[in-house]
Every structure is written in structure tokens, then in C-alpha cells.
Design brief:
Keywords: Signal
Helix content: 25-40%
Signal peptide: 1-24
Strand order of the largest sheet: 3-4-5-9-8-7-6
Distance between the termini: 64 Å
Shape: globular
Protein name: Transmembrane protein
Radius of gyration: 21 Å
Oligomer: single chain
CATH superfamily of the largest domain: Mog1/PsbP, alpha/beta/alpha sandwich
CATH class of the largest domain: Alpha Beta
Length: 184
């Protein structure tokens, strides 16, 4: 091979490597890890080490606490919220699910449209839940947000697994999070 061609190929390889490094530096890093929350009864894969938080909510006029585990990756927040209900009646579960569905949609000025989805159980089988994807303007700056969510009630717990992003996420990242979300 002639020296000019060798330099051209080395230059092309170096350029490709530079572009690859630049692209990977701009893309979000997802460092998936499985988190088992035995107290709240679920397991899920988070794209980074999650933190814990808690907030007060009022469902049907009854004050309750929502425990949250959240992790940030790229321009998205991945979260699982759990509310301990006062009882496990169908009416209480439905009210909690409606509250969460409406709240997520209201946060982005969207209609709380959801469809049925099967949520896996860690022991095998599935339970019925809701899935929704809504988008709209959020916050004081009215910035576009996309919310992907799964809502499910089981016993005295109601769960909200959600991703909030400022742009659509690759489907494999959304699938990784939701397919790993399992209840005990």
C-alpha cells in the first residue's frame, strides 16, 4: 500500500474515532442497576443510583404520604412513587389511581388518557395497571416535558412508575425501565 493511502486511512479512522467520542460525550449515560424495595414491595431497574424522597398528598380528602425513589440520567428523571392506602378496597384503589393519572397529566396541561397494561409480578403472573404517555408545557418556564407512566394498585399500595423527560427517549430506555418494574 502506498504511504499516501496509509495516511488517508489513518486520518479517516482518527476522524471516525473523534466523531464517535463526540457523539458518546453528548449522549446520556444509562448505568442500569436493579433496586429491590422490600418495604414498598417492588423491584425496578434505575439508570443511576436512586435517591429517596417523600411528599404529602391528599387522595379523596385523606392525607397520605408518597414515598419516592428517583434517579436522573441524561435529561430525564426516572421515579417510582408508592402510596400506602388506608385500606385495600376497590374504591380506594380506583380513587388513588385516578388521582395519580390526573396529577401527571395536569403537570403538563394534558388530558389524562391512559390504557390498560399488564404489570409483571416478581413471583410470576401479572396484574392489571394503567399506562400513559402525555406531553405538554410544564413549570414556570412552560418547557416541554414528556411523561411516560405506569400506574398500578396492589393490596394497600398504589404505585406510580414514571419517566419525565424534556425530549422523547429511545424506546429501549423506556422499555428497560418499565419491563423491569415488578411487584411482590
Amino acid at each position: 500500500m502506498r504511504p499516501g493511502r496509509v495516511r488517508t486511512r489513518i486520518g479517516a479512522a482518527a476522524a471516525a474515532l473523534t466523531v464517535g467520542v463526540a457523539i458518546s460525550a453528548c449522549s446520556p449515560t444509562f448505568d442500569w442497576r436493579t433496586v429491590m424495595n422490600n418495604d414498598k414491595g417492588y423491584t425496578v431497574d434505575f439508570p443511576a443510583k436512586p435517591g429517596n424522597d417523600q411528599r404529602a398528598v391528599q387522595i379523596g380528602g385523606t392525607p397520605m404520604q408518597m414515598a419516592m425513589q428517583t434517579a436522573e440520567a441524561g435529561n430525564a428523571v426516572f421515579a417510582v412513587g408508592t402510596v400506602m392506602l388506608p385500606d385495600d378496597s376497590d374504591a380506594t384503589q380506583r380513587a388513588a389511581l385516578a388521582f395519580l393519572r390526573a396529577g401527571l397529566a395536569r403537570n403538563v396541561g394534558a388530558t389524562p388518557d391512559a390504557h390498560a397494561v399488564q404489570v409483571p409480578l416478581a413471583a410470576g403472573g401479572k396484574t392489571l395497571g394503567l399506562e400513559m404517555t402525555v406531553s405538554g408545557a410544564a413549570g414556570a418556564k412552560h418547557e416541554t416535558r414528556i411523561v411516560y407512566a405506569r400506574l398500578v394498585a396492589r393490596g394497600r399500595h398504589v404505585y406510580q412508575a414514571a419517566i419525565i423527560a424534556d425530549q422523547p427517549l429511545p424506546q429501549d430506555q423506556v422499555d428497560q425501565f418499565f419491563s423491569s418494574f415488578q411487584l411482590y
